Amino acid sequence: MRLETLAVHAGAEADTETGAVASPLHLSTTFKHGPAAERVAGYEYQRESNPTQDRLEQCLAAMEGGERALVYASGMAAMQGYIDCLPNGAHLLIPNDCYSGLRTLCREFLPARGIRASAVDMADLDAVRAALEPDTALLWAETPSNPLLAVADIAALAEIAHAHGAKLVCDNTFATPVLQQPLKLGADAVMHSTTKYFGGHSDVMGGALVFAAADERYEAAFHRRHITGNIASPFNSWLILRGARSLPARMAWHCRNAQAIAEYLAAQPGIAAVNYPGLPTHAGHAVAKKQMRDFGGMLSIQFSGGQEAALRFAAKVKIFTNATSLGGVESLIEHRASTEGPNPVSPPNLIRMSVGLEHIDDLLADLQNALDAS
Ligand SMILES: *Cc1c(COP(=O)(O)O)cnc(C)c1O
């Protein structure tokens, strides 16, 4: 089955008891069992597994082409759910441009376990090879990356990782499986913030890991989630599942709007750079074309006039909302450096955009007005 069909039908069997076509939301924390704990339908206690979460996991595994999925309370919980399974003393490579939470996790929480992380430009394969250490157990990729939209060659990274006896995990939040399926390119697992495009309406938080195989990493992460309780609630699972059904349709529209905006902005004076992998001038365009079906709904721009010009622009938009996060139906913009706290790493002249599902003419007019005023 094609992805669009899987998005609608995976984990969507009609309810056997009632015939309900829409997936039921089961809130029960506990499930009746026999006198010696014999399970009736495979469930015992919500923190271990539950029917609504199971449906979402089936859907995510099918969409990413993996054998198993695990869903979590947030994207960060999913990320931590994987990284926590690394042995003490391990070394990992992370992208030098990446979601800021990963950087903070590595800096503040991993050293206590002797785990070290090195930041490297994942688009530069020689730099990746040079950064490997004997204890490197994991390569963490994020492509396209936040907020510079850098593109890494997933198949090449998988080869490098496996030749070293390490795993490759790919944060696929920006692309979603609609545009890119890292497991098919050799990654061992995919991580998602389902808060973003899967939820799609800026009203639910969640995360996921999808594993290529039901291997010991999967078992370890499953056991850890059960014991630490980092689960997605049934209601959040239900909302994210509902979002997944329309994800391919929404992504097509996000991509179309973002491509038009990137092309428009690239021709405007005062903008030093438009970071969007769909532009032929983007450093990662060729690799993106090879491994992605389309280029996504995220882009960032950098103003020649520095931080002042960026902030003036951000203050002037009316349809775009100044807010963090991404992947919802509404267009958002954000001056990343201002959101990153005391030690921002994003360029001060950078504005990130999550392009929504509004009519393109209204979005372009909004940007034009803000540029005229900035
Ligand atoms: C938002 C995000 C995360 C973190 O997910 P949460 O659901 O906010 O915990 C991780 N990676 C990327 C690329 C993100 O955009």
Structure description:
The protein is α/β, with parallel strands linked by helices. α4 links the parallel β2 (91-95) and β3. It has two domains: 3-245, Type I PLP-dependent aspartate aminotransferase-like (Major domain) (Aspartate Aminotransferase, domain 2, 3-Layer(aba) Sandwich), CATH 3.40.640.10; 247-373, Aspartate Aminotransferase, domain 1. The chain has helices at residues 3-9, 51-64, 75-83, 100-108, 125-131, 154-163, 176-179, 216-228, 234-245, 247-266, 285-291, 306-316, 336-339, 360-373; strands at 68-72, 91-95, 116-120, 136-142, 167-171, 189-193, 207-211, 271-275, 298-303, 321-322, 332-334, 350-354. 38% of the residues lie in helices and 16% in strands. It has a seven-stranded mixed beta sheet with strand order 1-7-6-5-4-2-3, sandwiched between helices. It binds pyridoxal-5'-phosphate. Pyridoxal-5'-phosphate binds next to α3.
CATH homology superfamily of the largest domain:
Type I PLP-dependent aspartate aminotransferase-like (Major domain)
Low-confidence stretches: none
Relative strand content: 15-25%
What would you say the CATH architecture of the largest domain is? 3-Layer(aba) Sandwich
Task: Identify the strand order in the major beta sheet.
Answer: 1-7-6-5-4-2-3
Task: State the shape.
Answer: globular
Number of helices: 14
What is the CATH third-level topology name of the largest domain? Aspartate Aminotransferase, domain 2
Distance between the termini: 49 Å
Order of helices and strands: HHEHEHEHEHEHEEHHHEHEHEEHEH
Average pLDDT, rounded to a whole number, is: 97
CATH level-1 class of the largest domain: Alpha Beta
